[in-house]
């Protein structure tokens, strides 16, 4: 494990203009050690996140999608620094935050907030809504204009809750309302980046739509940047500007929404999209579905070469030995594959596949 | 509010209506009501539900949490009638006809014989539905031997055959594995094998793929479809995912607040829905198959409490069309399920013409 040097902690106070990189991640790695015996000898590691490179641009929504165990939630916790990365670099507004300590992170926390999946376990049942939403002010020593109570009530109103419910407890609210409380808490300090880990997956369809719309409105009003982590490809399509598809700790494809859903290039993305049941009975017959065999391999000992080769119908010898790098095969369309789909017009860099099969 | 008799377990709620003529359909549910007395009041989980299902057909029951989908399925299997220590937990009334036999008034022993053999269930969470202490094989063998008088060896052979059929690799080895040694998808396959080991005529799948990843979900949905073709059974699939019902169901029943608000062929419910709640479901669903830049159209508000269901239409407080004139019908009047077209029913006070107009002019263009 290498510890990158602490880059000059120059305060870059100027906000990045929309479209500029707000968060930059290079070679991000998180291995959870597996220990055994009395001496806690390390016998292996769960390679939850194994080399991620991406950036989040100011004002955009980056969707991160993948199946369970692909490392998407670990990624979310690494970029918010709730977990300590094992390697790589996380830069926020040009400042290296990879290994900042708790104290040094505190001022950053104002700018990076998180919305959690489970609205039941992410709110303290013994605190009132007022206490929950005002906690960020207390922790950061911020005195909002007009007093904490007034600000909290304003926030509750912003997320569509009744400000008079200030003194109620979380159990008095429904799932959708609780998720709104979590959102109000995340917005309290006017963050720049909000990382939402499965923000709507615990909610019913009709309530899910309310929360998705709320996130949309808040982004437009407050100029927020989102990283939304979800397993639901329909939700991701609706909310994201750009999307990263993860498989076994790696990004396999990263591009804008339109290209990803209309011309996916990684076979895994294609299989994933084809597997989603479409709410349109007339079209079920014309759809070609790619059924992947077997299950996702264990992240303790991921397959050599391309991690997807064990389940890929296009895999050849090169896939078993050589790991495909994440390359921009088209402008703004990064793919990590030796045999990309929808790529008949593209010449792959040498050393990769000898020919690129057509779509 | 609570009927004192129900506490003692001496009654099955409202008296069972005089049993009417046996139906022609393979499964027919008539006016099913499942009520649970609680300290807070009577929870009317299912409040007057009727439907039919033929062999070889799939019925999709759609609704949000608390709409009564799962309670209906447990009711059909007769799993509500007796609680722990034989206490009466639920008050059930109505009729459930399976292959010409009424189940609610039948002897519990008779229902137990049918359960597992004629009707079986696939549960949502295979980890909690499978016993962690016994091997997969042992659990399937037991399910088979309860209904078939065979020795262990024959039953084991049958278990291996079923595991093979549901696509578990090396079934002769995996039959001796414990549930924790299986992945989520494999456990779900094992549970399907267990449900199908007796070739049931009716299979109820309650959110069979909700706990699974999308690629595994696709495998399981394919498996259910193939097995249905092979065995010709009637299938009820309960889900909140409209994609799953579009994929599998011939008919769709939309539930809200313990009642059916719309029922019809998949084609009708998806392309000519006639209930504002169905419109709401379709509008609030983000689409995978379309580039969509508009906002979603959510159903405002929250589902009703089942203790205090609005006296009229349960959807009224959330309905955007509550103010459309309905020819003198008051809000406290409950809309009955009426046929709007052949085999397509909906429970709404608005006139069919109004609904058709709203759907084609206001809703459909936005989807």
From TrEMBL, chain A:
Keywords: ATP-binding, Nucleotide-binding, Transport. PROSITE patterns: ABC_TRANSPORTER_1, ABC_TRANSPORTER_2. Residues 23-273 form the ABC transporter domain. The keyword ATP-binding applies. Coiled coil: none annotated. GO terms for molecular function: ATP binding. Residues 1-20 are annotated as: Disordered. CDD domains: ABC_NikE_OppD_transporters. Belongs to the ABC transporter superfamily. NCBIfam families: oligo_HPY, PRK11308.1. This is ABC transporter ATP-binding protein. It comes from Streptomyces pathocidini. The lineage of its organism: Bacteria, Bacillati, Actinomycetota, Actinomycetes, Kitasatosporales.
UniProtKB/TrEMBL annotation, chain B:
GO terms for molecular function: ATP binding. Coiled coil: none annotated. Keywords: ATP-binding, Cell membrane, Membrane, Nucleotide-binding, Transport. It is found in: Cell membrane. Residues 27-282 form the ABC transporter domain. It is a peripheral membrane protein. SUPFAM superfamilies: P-loop containing nucleoside triphosphate hydrolases. SMART domains: AAA. Belongs to the ABC transporter superfamily. This is ABC transporter ATP-binding protein. It comes from Streptomyces pathocidini.
């Amino acid at each position: 494990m290498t510890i990158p040097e602490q880059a000059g902690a120059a305060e870059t106070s100027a906000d990045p203009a929309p479209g500029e990189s707000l968060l930059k991640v290079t070679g991000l790695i998180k291995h959870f050690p597996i220990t055994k015996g009395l001496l806690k000898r390390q016998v292996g590691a769960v390679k939850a996140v194994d080399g991620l490179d991406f950036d989040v641009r100011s004002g955009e929504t980056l969707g991160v999608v993948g199946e369970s165990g692909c490392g998407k939630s670990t990624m979310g916790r690494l970029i918010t620094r709730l977990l300590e990365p094992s390697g790589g670099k996380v830069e926020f507004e040009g400042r290296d935050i990879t290994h900042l300590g708790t104290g040094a992170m505190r001022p950053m926390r104002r700018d990076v907030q998180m919305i959690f999946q489970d609205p039941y376990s992410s709110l303290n049942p013994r605190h009132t809504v007022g206490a929950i939403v005002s906690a960020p002010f207390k922790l950061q020593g911020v005195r909002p204009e007009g007093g904490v109570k007034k600000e909290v009530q304003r926030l509750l109103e912003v997320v569509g809750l009744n400000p008079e419910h200030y003194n109620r407890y979380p159990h008095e609210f429904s799932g959708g309302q609780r998720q709104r409380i979590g959102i109000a808490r995340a917005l309290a300090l006017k963050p720049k980046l909000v990382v939402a880990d499965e923000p709507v997956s615990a909610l019913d369809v009709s309530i899910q739509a309310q929360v998705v719309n709320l996130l949309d409105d808040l982004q437009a009003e407050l100029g927020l940047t989102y990283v939304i982590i979800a397993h639901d490809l329909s939700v991701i399509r609706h909310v994201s500007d750009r999307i990263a598809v993860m498989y076994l700790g790696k990004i396999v494809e990263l591009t804008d929404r339109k290209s990803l859903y209309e011309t996916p290039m990684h076979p895994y993305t294609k299989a994933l999209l084809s597997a989603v049941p479409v709410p349109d009975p007339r079209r079920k017959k014309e759809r070609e579905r790619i059924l992947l065999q077997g299950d996702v391999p264990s992240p303790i000992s991921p397959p050599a070469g391309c991690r997807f080769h064990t389940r890929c119908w296009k895999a050849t010898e090169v896939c078993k030995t050589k790991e495909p790098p994440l390359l921009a095969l088209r402008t703004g369309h990064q793919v990590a594959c030796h045999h990309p789909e929808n790529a008949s017009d593209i010449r792959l860099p040498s050393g990769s596949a000898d020919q690129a099969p057509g779509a | 509010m609570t009927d004192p008799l129900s506490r003692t377990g001496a009654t099955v709620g409202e008296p069972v209506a005089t049993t009417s003529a046996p139906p022609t359909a393979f499964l027919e549910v008539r006016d099913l009501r499942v009520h649970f007395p609680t300290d807070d009041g009577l929870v009317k989980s299912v409040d007057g539900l009727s439907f039919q299902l033929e062999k070889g057909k799939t019925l999709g029951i759609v609704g949000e949490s608390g709409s009564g989908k799962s309670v209906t399925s447990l009711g059909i299997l007769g799993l509500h009638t007796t609680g722990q220590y034989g206490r009466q937990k639920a008050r059930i009334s109505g009729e459930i006809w399976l292959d010409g036999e009424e189940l609610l008034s039948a002897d519990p022993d008779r229902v137990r014989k049918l359960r597992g053999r004629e009707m079986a269930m696939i549960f949502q969470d295979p980890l909690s539905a499978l016993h962690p202490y016994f091997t997969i094989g042992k659990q399937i063998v037991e399910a088979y031997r309860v209904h078939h008088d065979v020795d262990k060896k024959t039953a084991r052979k049958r278990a291996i055959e079923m595991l093979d059929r549901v696509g578990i690799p090396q079934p002769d080895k995996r039959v001796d594995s414990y549930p924790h040694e299986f992945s989520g998808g494999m456990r779900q396959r094992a549970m399907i094998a267990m449900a199908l080991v007796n070739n049931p005529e009716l299979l109820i799948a309650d959110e069979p793929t909700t706990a699974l990843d999308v690629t595994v979900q696709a495998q399981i949905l394919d498996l259910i479809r193939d097995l249905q073709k092979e065995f010709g059974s009637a299938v009820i699939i309960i889900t909140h995912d409209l994609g799953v019902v579009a994929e599998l169901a011939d008919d769709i029943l939309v539930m809200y607040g313990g009642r059916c608000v719309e029922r019809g062929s998949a084609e009708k419910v998806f392309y000519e829905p006639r209930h504002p709640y169905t419109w709401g479901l379709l509008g609030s669903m983000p689409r995978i198959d379309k580039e969509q830049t508009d906002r979603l159209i959510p159903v405002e508000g929250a589902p009703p409490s089942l203790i205090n269901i609005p006296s009229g239409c349960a959807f009224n407080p959330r309905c955007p069309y509550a103010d459309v004139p309905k020819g003198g019908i008051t809000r406290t009047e409950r809309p009955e399920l009426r046929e709007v077209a052949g085999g397509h029913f909906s429970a709404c006070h608005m006139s069919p013409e109004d609904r058709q107009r709203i759907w084609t002019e206001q809703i459909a263009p936005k989807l």
